[in-house]
Amino acid sequence: MALEESHVRRAAHLARLAVSDDQARGFVDDLSRILDMVDQLQSIDTEGVSPLAHPLDATQRLRADEVTETNQRDTFQRCAPAVENGLYLVPRVVE
Amino acid sequence: MHDKTLTQLAASLKSGEFSSRELTSHYLRKIEKADGTLNSFITVTGEQALNQAEAADKARAAGDTGLLTGIPLALKDIFCTRDVKTSCGSKMLDNFIAPYNATVVEKLSAAGTISLGKTNMDEFAMGSSNENSHYGAVKNPWDLKAVPGGSSGGSAAAVAAGLAPAAMGTDTGGSIRQPAAFCGITGLKPTYGRVSRYGMIAYASSLDQAGPMARSAEDCAHLMNVIAGHDVRDSTSVARGVPDYTESLNAPLSGLKIGLPKEYFGDGLAPEVEKSVRDAVKVYESMGATVREVSLPHTHYAIPAYYVIAPAEASSNLSRFDGVRFGHRCQDPVDLMDLYKRSRAEGFGEEVKRRILIGTHTLSEGFFDAYYTKAQKVRRLIRQDFLDAFEEVDVLMGPAAPTPAFDLGAKKDPVSMYLQDIYTIAVNLAGIPGISVPAGLAGGRPIGLQILGTHFAEAQLLNVAHQYQQATDWHLQLPAIAEENA
């Protein structure tokens, strides 16, 4: 499955990564080599094999729906780039 | 002090030979002298360490002590440590002061251990050489031209150089075992879910696991006694009893059935590594173990499967670094999209971007089944290989890496770097535990023997490794830099 520059651009947009034209061409080369290596998977017969998402086949445990955490907004916002009145600041999104 | 194992240091603290403050000061001095050369630490927390050491000495005087009270340790900079910079080796988190402790940090602190600081690593644990760190490469204490391995390269180098008696690492595809092998120390990757991942910055959540890196298997057993166990804050941690890992260290090995996977002794394995591994196996035979060849037929598909699954999980996990709530933010964003895209482009290094792009691409519409679903099917086959092998034998043995440590700058092509992990990566896909123990030197660079067990067989692996270390002294050998700065 050949990788094209349009694939890299689409992935970069979906992943919210700014990529210059030069960088995009560089990624096409690197990623193509990685995907060529990955393509070895296609040679294995996996008919009837179910996908394994978790090595222990564990199921999600449930807990009671109770509030256990305290409000630590001030602590958590101390490492934020920009906050005001307890809110995170970003460029205007609604005109 | 630097040539003592953690177990010996604990005995010395108990007997009053020296105080925790003296011991901690000793390691801080060694870090100051040697780490300008090695670059194994990103952050040294000297003042906090001395305060913790004084508290430990007071606790000891009051009779309120555990086995590890007052023992200094280093933490890979992937573990969130309250009020301490936790960078994960990335520019993205260069300004991140963690607001809480990882469970591993919390448990080690509750056991009375002292944190010397945070060790260097490949950015977001993505790498096999520690060359992908925003804070520069780490040098191998045995040979400054060589890499220490990765991604827990700083932890491995610090322990090998005697800058800390032990360190915590994490292992997603070999990141504890391969640097342990390259630096001549002992490193255990526990079963997936055995140690809590809470507060450990996520790379690939179905593969990541924390574990101890130290001079000996006995040291690792003491640390496992502290860190293993269920944690309600990590829904994938396993609710299952934790044994005393030191209890079975001296169990005799007569009758132990060792399997040698034939795929681990094929093309690409350096002859000097093969010789050291086969010599180690002979030591086990002399203890009464039996040896047979086994097969893990899907071995060569482990790296391809990993490079779908791990980047896919990474692309999702790393979406949290958005320049809004914490971490790097670009200057003067024109709108929200620009803020996201430039903050992430500036904050992440090349290898991290590659993996995010691979993961995003393979998960995207039109490619998902061919890559991701296929890789997960192959993952099941890889795990089944191990389960079948453990029907026949108790443990598997082989090399931890195909060669001793390679030179800094030697592997520029990403794929050639990925192929270094051929003997470690399948273990994470299967979720089983593995340990690397020093088993030789070639050209002045250490060689690691890897021992694998079935799920939750950590106690057995530590027993098997400990018995080897009772019969050999590879784990006690130190690089010249450790002696020079004593």
Automatic annotation (TrEMBL), chain A:
Keywords: ATP-binding, Ligase, Nucleotide-binding, Protein biosynthesis, Transferase
GO biological process, one term: regulation of translational fidelity
Transmembrane regions listed in the UniProt entry: none
Catalytic activity as recorded in UniProt: L-glutamyl-tRNA(Gln) + L-glutamine + ATP + H2O = L-glutaminyl-tRNA(Gln) + L-glutamate + ADP + phosphate + H(+); L-aspartyl-tRNA(Asn) + L-glutamine + ATP + H2O = L-asparaginyl-tRNA(Asn) + L-glutamate + ADP + phosphate + 2 H(+)
GO MF term list: asparaginyl-tRNA synthase (glutamine-hydrolyzing) activity; ATP binding; glutaminyl-tRNA synthase (glutamine-hydrolyzing) activity; transferase activity
Gene3D superfamilies linked: Glu-tRNAGln amidotransferase C subunit, N-terminal domain
Any Pfam family: GatC
Keyword Protein transport on entry: no
Enzyme Commission number: 6.3.5.-
Signal peptide start and end residues: none
Enzyme class, UniProt record, top EC level: ligase
Summary of the function given for this chain in its UniProt record: Allows the formation of correctly charged Asn-tRNA(Asn) or Gln-tRNA(Gln) through the transamidation of misacylated Asp-tRNA(Asn) or Glu-tRNA(Gln) in organisms which lack either or both of asparaginyl-tRNA or glutaminyl-tRNA synthetases. The reaction takes place in the presence of glutamine and ATP through an activated phospho-Asp-tRNA(Asn) or phospho-Glu-tRNA(Gln).
Membership in a protein family: Belongs to the GatC family.
Self-association and partners: Heterotrimer of A, B and C subunits.
Protein name as it appears in the record: Aspartyl/glutamyl-tRNA(Asn/Gln) amidotransferase subunit C
Native source species: Vreelandella nanhaiensis
Gene: gatC
TrEMBL record, chain B:
Gene Ontology molecular functions: ATP binding; glutaminyl-tRNA synthase (glutamine-hydrolyzing) activity; transferase activity
NCBIfam families: gatA
UniProt xrefs under SUPFAM superfamilies: Amidase signature (AS) enzymes
UniProt source species: Vreelandella nanhaiensis
Quaternary data: Heterotrimer of A, B and C subunits.
Reactions catalysed: L-glutamyl-tRNA(Gln) + L-glutamine + ATP + H2O = L-glutaminyl-tRNA(Gln) + L-glutamate + ADP + phosphate + H(+)
Record-given protein name: Glutamyl-tRNA(Gln) amidotransferase subunit A
HAMAP family attached to this UniProt entry: GatA
Record bears the keyword Transferase: yes
Active site residues per record: K76, S151, S175
Alphabetized UniProt keyword annotations: ATP-binding, Ligase, Nucleotide-binding, Protein biosynthesis, Transferase
Coiled coil residues, start to end: none
This enzyme's EC code(s): 6.3.5.7
Domain Amidase: 22-462
Pfam families per the UniProt record, alphabetical: Amidase
GO biological process, one term: translation
Alphabetized Gene3D superfamilies for the sequence: Amidase signature (AS) domain
Family: Belongs to the amidase family. GatA subfamily.
Role this protein plays: Allows the formation of correctly charged Gln-tRNA(Gln) through the transamidation of misacylated Glu-tRNA(Gln) in organisms which lack glutaminyl-tRNA synthetase. The reaction takes place in the presence of glutamine and ATP through an activated gamma-phospho-Glu-tRNA(Gln).
GO cellular component terms, semicolon-separated: glutamyl-tRNA(Gln) amidotransferase complex
